[in-house]
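--- STAGE predict ---
source: upstream dedup step, 1 unique chain passed
mode: sequence only
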Amino acid sequence: MPSSETPNSVLHFGTDVDPNLRHNAAMRALKVERDEMMRTKTEKRGLLLVHTGDGKGKSTAAFGLIARALGWNQRVGVVQFIKGKWKTGERQFFNRFPEQVIFRAMGEGFTWETQDRERDISAAKAAWEMAKEMIDDPTLNLVVLDELNIALRYEYLDIADVVATLRDRPATKHVCITGRNARPELFEIADLVTEMRLHKHPFDQNVKAQRGIDF
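--- STAGE serialize ---
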């Protein structure tokens, strides 16, 4: 049997080789590759993240980023473009950190509830003005624009203005955007795009939205 100092050879042996030895050799080879890859990652700057797709978890993932930022004693701004006075667990929780989180729920509720395009446009524009203030605020490390994608999908806001503001934001500012149907223009300028895919949802099994899981 080859020694543990010959990982490449071990990788080519058959199934009779000790699986622990084979695993050790594979992981050592992988570590060499990973170390070399990480050596080239030297840039540090603010990122634009987009969470989109028809699956659940877009806002949830963004709120996880906020928790992570709070863990490092960073300050965060949140603007919700659709949710308004609806009581949610995330807003109640982050309101416990008034020195670190500025949380603004500025929507008028779901578009099928308001049934008033002009009212929705007015609310979206007010929310966007608040978002721009947060993006320019040097004390905020992260800004979450929850469901901005929906406001853009219905053309409540000027996409060119949004793109220009996000593209020209302060160099160290992280911004996370959520919502279905993200515009291609955001894909182009984003540093990270994650698309949530729907496979199953309890709503299709006649299970209503529940506290702590959905809101």
